[in-house]
């Protein structure tokens, strides 16, 4: 058997090492997570004092409290999504995280493949979209402004598109699992 030409071996090594070009993307996502934390804390500290105001019309109504909590949950889901993409993407495409002896390593780390990552991604997007749609519907009639039926219709259409995309991705993964590997 002939040895590979040195130029081919060097090129393949270069291609293999190019995976490290993704590392700055994951570092950027960590900074985006920090950005989400800042927004989360800003919103929390904005709404928290309002929850304790007792004067009529000064504090949060139950709808306002629900909307505030939904906003915080939305930010939390986005943060979870960032973590999943950062860890799974890094481990699937760049390098394994060497965390030997780490006691609180989440059990899913190192086990989420690209297919699982897609499913977690679309499930998070559907949840975030659903929360945004719920917030829209809870704000209807709040300011006395007429309902923007076109905005409501597009919100529902976009949410249903995300749901349909999730169902189709799950179906494709299921069909792929059923077929023989070549």
From TrEMBL:
Major location (coarse): membrane
Membrane topology: Multi-pass membrane protein
Signal sequence bounds: none
One Pfam family it belongs to: UPF0114
Key words, A-Z: Cell membrane, Membrane, Transmembrane, Transmembrane helix
InterPro entries, sorted: UPF0114, UPF0114_bac
Coiled coil: none
Highest rank taxon of the organism: Bacteria
Keyword RNA-binding applies: no
Membrane-spanning intervals of the chain: 21-45, 65-87, 121-140, 152-175
Localisation per UniProt entry: Cell membrane
HAMAP family in the record: UPF0114 (MF_00143)
Family label: Belongs to the UPF0114 family.
PANTHER family tied to this protein: UPF0114 PROTEIN YQHA
Record's protein name: UPF0114 protein GCM10009422_04400
Lineage: Bacteria, Pseudomonadati, Pseudomonadota, Alphaproteobacteria, Caulobacterales
């Amino acid at each position: 058997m002939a040895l590979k030409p040195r130029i081919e071996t060097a090129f393949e090594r270069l291609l293999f090492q190019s995976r490290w070009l993704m590392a700055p993307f994951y570092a950027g996502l960590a900074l985006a997570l920090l950005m989400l934390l800042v927004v989360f804390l800003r919103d929390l500290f904005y709404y928290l004092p309002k929850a304790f105001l007792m004067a009529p019309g000064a504090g949060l109504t139950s709808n306002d409290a629900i909307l505030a909590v939904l906003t915080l949950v939305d930010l939390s889901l986005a943060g979870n999504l960032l973590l999943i993409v950062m860890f799974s993407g890094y481990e699937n495409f760049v390098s394994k995280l060497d965390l030997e002896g780490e006691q609180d390593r989440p059990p899913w780390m190192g086990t989420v493949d690209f297919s699982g990552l897609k499913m977690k991604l679309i499930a998070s997007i559907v949840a975030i979209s659903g929360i945004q749609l719920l917030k829209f519907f809870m704000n209807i009639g709040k300011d006395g402004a007429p309902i923007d039926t076109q905005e409501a219709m597009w919100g529902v259409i976009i949410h249903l598109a995300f749901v349909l995309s999730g169902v189709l991705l799950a179906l494709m993964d299921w069909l792929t699992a059923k077929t023989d590997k070549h």
